[in-house]
C-alpha cells in the first residue's frame, strides 16, 4: 500500500519544491579545523547504527494506545469536548494524536535530512562539512525508522504541519549559510530533541522508548554541532545582523509553539477546533509540556549569543524564560547515557531469551534422545 493511501487527508502527489538560493561553497583547506567539531565528527562516525538491526521491531504496539500513558495526558483531557466522548471515541483521539505526533517527527526528519545536505553544500568550513555529512546519514536513518513505525505500528499518517513547513521553507530558502543552521539545528532539532525526551520518559511502550532514545542519541550531537558552528560566527555579527537573526528566532519559536497545538487532529475529528485549541493553550499539563519543549532551545539560543531584549520578551510571553538557566550539556549527556543504558538492557534481554530457547531445546532433546542436536 502506498503511503499516500494512509494519510488522514489527501496530500499532493509529487514533490514539495522549496526554491533554494545561495552559493555552494568549496574550501581548499583540508588540514586545519576546530578540534571540537572534528571530535564531534569522529563521534558521528563511531556511532552510526542500523535501524533494521538495532531496534527490536517485533515488540507490539497498540494503535489505540501507542504511548501507553494515562488519559490525563491527552491535551483536551477534562474539557467539555472530552467529557462527552465515549471510550471508543477517546481511543480514536489517542490513535489520531499518536499518528499526528509521529507524522510530524517523520516530516521534520525529512526536513533535517534536506537541510543537512544543504549545510554540506553551503557552509564554508571543511570541519563543518565533515560533520554535516555524518548528520545526513543520521537523518536518513530517522526518516526510515519513523516511516516504518507509522506504517507498521500505527497505520495512519498526517500531512506536514503548516507551521513546521513554513519554518523549513524559511530556513532553506535564505541565501545566508547560517540560516539553515539556525532554523534546523537550533530551533527544529532543539524542539524535536526535547519532545523526544518528554515522550521517551512518559511512554510505557518499550519499542517507542527504544526508538526515541536512539534517535535522541544522534540529535544531541546535531544540536551540539549547531552551537559550535554558530557561536563563533555570531560573536562577530554587527548589531543589525544580530537583530535580524533574533527576529528569525522569535518568529520561529512561535511557529514551533503552534506546531504542537494539534489543530489538524481536532479538524479531522470534527471537534470544536477553537475550543480545543483554547483549552489546550490554558491547560496546566500543556503549559508544563511547553516549558519542557523549549528546554533545549532557550539555553542554546542564549549560548550562541542571540539574547537581545526581543528574544527575552518572547520567551517570557511563551512562559519558557526559566529554561535559560538549564545546563544544555548536562541534558545532552543524559540523552546519550539513556540510549546507552537502553542498549545494554536490550542486549541483556536478548541474551536471556536466547538462553531460554537453547535451554528449552536442550531439555527437549534430553527427554527424546531420537532428536538430533544441530
CATH class category name: Mainly Alpha
Count of DSSP H/I helices = 15
Q: Which range best describes the helical content: under 10%, 10-25%, 25-40%, 40-55%, 55-70% or over 70%?
A: 55-70%
Domains (count): 1
**Got a strand count?**
0
Oligomer description: single chain
Query: Could you say which overall geometry the principal axes of the C-alpha atoms support?
Result: globular
Mean pLDDT over the residues: 89
CATH homologous superfamily annotation: Ribonucleotide Reductase, subunit A
Beta-strand share of residues: under 5%
Largest sheet composition: none
State the secondary-structure class: mainly alpha
The CATH topology name reads Ribonucleotide Reductase, subunit A
Cα-atom radius of gyration: 23 Å
| Level-2 CATH architecture | Orthogonal Bundle
- Secondary-structure element order, as H and E? HHHHHHHHHHHHHHH
Amino acid at each position: 500500500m502506498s503511503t499516500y493511501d494512509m494519510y488522514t487527508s489527501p496530500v499532493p502527489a509529487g514533490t514539495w519544491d522549496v526554491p533554494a538560493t545561495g552559493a555552494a561553497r568549496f574550501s581548499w583547506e583540508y588540514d586545519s579545523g576546530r578540534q571540537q567539531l572534528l571530535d564531534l565528527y569522529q563521534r558521528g562516525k563511531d556511532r552510526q547504527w542500523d535501524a533494521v538491526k538495532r531496534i527490536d521491531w517485533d515488540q507490539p504496539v497498540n494503535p489505540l494506545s501507542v504511548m501507553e500513558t494515562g488519559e490525563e495526558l491527552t491535551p483536551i483531557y477534562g474539557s467539555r469536548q472530552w467529557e462527552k466522548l465515549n471510550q471508543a471515541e477517546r481511543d480514536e483521539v489517542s490513535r489520531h494524536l499518536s499518528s499526528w505526533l509521529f507524522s510530524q517527527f517523520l516530516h521534520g526528519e525529512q526536513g533535517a535530512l534536506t537541510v543537512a545536505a544543504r549545510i554540506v553544500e553551503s557552509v564554508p568550513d571543511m570541519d563543518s562539512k565533515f560533520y554535516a555529512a555524518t548528520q545526513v546519514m543520521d537523518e536518513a536513518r530517522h526518516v526510515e525508522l519513523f516511516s516504518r513505525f507509522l506504517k507498521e505500528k500505527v497505520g495512519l499518517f498526517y500531512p506536514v504541519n503548516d507551521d513546521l513547513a513554513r519554518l523549513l521553507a524559511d530556513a532553506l530558502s535564505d541565501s545566508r549559510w547560517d540560516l539553515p543552521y539556525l532554523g534546523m539545528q537550533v530551533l527544529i532539532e532543539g524542539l524535536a530533541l526535547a519532545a523526544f525526551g518528554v515522550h521517551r520518559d512518559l511512554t510505557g511502550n518499550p519499542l517507542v522508548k527504544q526508538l526515541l532514545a536512539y534517535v535522541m542519541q544522534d540529535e544531541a550531537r546535531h544540536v551540539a554541532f549547531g552551537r559550535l558552528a554558530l557561536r563563533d560566527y555570531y560573536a562577530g555579527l554587527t548589531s543589525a545582523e544580530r537583530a535580524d537573526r533574533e527576529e528569525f528566532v522569535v518568529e520561529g519559536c512561535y511557529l514551533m509553539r503552534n506546531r504542537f497545538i494539534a489543530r489538524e487532529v481536532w479538524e479531522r475529528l470534527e471537534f470544536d477546533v477553537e475550543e480545543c485549541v483554547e483549552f489546550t493553550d490554558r491547560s496546566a499539563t500543556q503549559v508544563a509540556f511547553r516549558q519542557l519543549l523549549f528546554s533545549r532551545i532557550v539555553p542554546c539560543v542564549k549560548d550562541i549569543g542571540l539574547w537581545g531584549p526581543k528574544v527575552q520578551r518572547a520567551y517570557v510571553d511563551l512562559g519558557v524564560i526559566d529554561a535559560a538557566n538549564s545546563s544544555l550539556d548536562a541534558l545532552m549527556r543524559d540523552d546519550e547515557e539513556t540510549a546507552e543504558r537502553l542498549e545494554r538492557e536490550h542486549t541483556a534481554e536478548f541474551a536471556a531469551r536466547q538462553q531460554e530457547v537453547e535451554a528449552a531445546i536442550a531439555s527437549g532433546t534430553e527427554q527424546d534422545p531420537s532428536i538430533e542436536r544441530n
